[in-house]
Amino acid sequence: MRRCTYNCMLPNRLKYTPMPVRQLPEIIVNRIAAGEVVERPASAVKELVENAIDAGAHRIDVFTDGGGRRRITITDDGTGMTRRDLALAVERHATSKLDDEDLLRIRTLGFRGEALPSIGAVARLGITTRHASEPHAWAMHVDAGAKSEIAPAALTQGTRVEVADLFYATPARLKFLKTDRTEGEAIREVVRRLAMARPDIAFTLAGEERAPVTWAAALPGAPGQLTRLGDILGAEFRASAIEVRSERDGVIVEGFAAAPSLTRANALGQYLFVNGRPVRDKLILGAVRAAYADYLPRDRHPVVALFVTLDSQEVDANVHPAKTEVRFRNAGLVRALIIHALKEGLAREGRRTAANGGGAVLSSFRPNIPPRGGWDWRNSPSYPASTSATAEARDDFVQGFSEVAQADFDVGAPSADVRFEQAPAPEQIDKPLGAARTQIHETYIVSQTRDGLIVVDQHAAHERIVYERLKASLERNGVARQILLIPDIVEMDEATVEKLLGQADELEKFGLAIESFGPGAVAVRETPSLLGKTNAAALLRDLSEHMAEWDEALPLERRLMHVAATMACHGSVRAGRILKPEEMNALLREMEVTPNSGQCNHGRPTYVELKLADIEKLFGRR
């Protein structure tokens, strides 16, 4: 029986006959290269804008039509090109951005020498440029790889590149493009990222039947950088931005990170730059996620703009045709600096990191008042709107608060005095979180400050305190533990038991000692002293749920912090527990000296604050 080869199993339309090796024509080579460099219209815009930046432009104008497939025009006021340079610029692997053959000394954004010839191979490309040493400008055209003669042209300064009918020479590629709107948004995102990287350059983006967007050149330094970021990311980011910076061994990490009160549902709000180059690097994204782990819920992502600067020989920017990925020589150092910079900035601005004040809180209290005139009593739910309502009922309501009407508001004497008998001590009122005045619903502490009031979630606040104590104890000399006189036996399914026992060494670092107690059971012999009396069964079940999300790529540090956060939740003051005045004030004082006390371990705010001026606005006093 004849043995079938792989080729005979292929469908007829996929079978091929081996052919001799041959050299591909130059036009096919260029179109293949175009497929690597120019993936979509946004890729062409990126390459051309990077060329303008490398040319020393102070202003770059971008115009697109039809999502970039019909027309792309990039105009800059850079140095321009001479006639000789223009002739070479459309040849493959010709570049002005490498001083020598050392690919580890990359100081520019573009260096491959493939952008212009690749675009010209699949579109109609026109270039007009003028160098200061030339008497006039020069222009040439490339139509699907066919180059025209260079001719004199009119242009005052810089370069103008026009791309028409992108991918017309490769019609199959057009089928894979998305709608004009989607492609236009991709172009907008590319320009946004490049504008963030260079706040000293003015950018204009026009076309797509939208009003032009202009970002003016900003001042140098951090203030100018924040101005540009605010112009692009919005006033909300500018208001919550925290400046971060860290430096070691020639590596600098700087930029701005939004307070945890400003988050996104995905990681698209994280803008990362390496030596001025926008990148999407997994190492940096992972470091950002680790730095915010103590502040945000697992389903929320921070908004940051980070700029990493280091020697060009310490980073390889040549690992991807589109130059969107990089590889660091010392990746561990870069990751550590990013985490340190973010954590230090967030800890420094601890009072700003919580969603505990401002418009969001105020709007929660504000009644729905008509924009003009006062509140109309006819809008009240108590107003008898039914046509069958009796005239007597209407008359009683209109009379106002007569004795009969006032009786409806008599709810009896208060069941308990909600105020403390003694006046708050002046030294406590002047504290950041004020003096405790009452506890409501056995869950929330209301405190009075010199200029407002604060409402504290007692469980969330104490959860953060216990968590920070666990972390500090672990870093110092390990977590103190208490030996149970009678071990707690917790029954679970065998798969969960195996998972917990597999992490027993990590749990023991936090003072939780467990061991097998037969099939489907775990014996808890020691627990952290900080937790006091705890429900071992509930704690282990919560830990097992978190461990289900772990994988081998998750660093040990992150896994330990997950354990600490879960333990802190079980060792905290629970909602529903009545606190004495001195206990409330003690909790407030601990919050004031605890790092990151604005949020609990799950990213929820621990307190909200209302200034006296805000309260007066609610009652129309301002």
Write up this protein:
The protein is α+β, with helices and mostly antiparallel strands. The chain has three domains: 188 residues, 2-Layer Sandwich (Heat Shock Protein 90), CATH 3.30.565; 135 residues, Ribosomal Protein S5, domain 2 (2-Layer Sandwich); 205 residues, formyl-coa transferase, domain 3 (2-Layer Sandwich). 35% of the residues lie in helices and 22% in strands. It is built from 22 helices and 25 strands. The protein is elongated, with a radius of gyration of 33 Å. The N and C termini lie far apart (96 Å). About 9% of the residues have low confidence.
Describe the structure concisely:
With 622 residues, the protein is α+β, with helices and mostly antiparallel strands. It contains 22 helices and 25 strands. Helix 2 packs across helix 5, helix 3 runs parallel beside helix 7 and helix 10 packs parallel to helix 11.
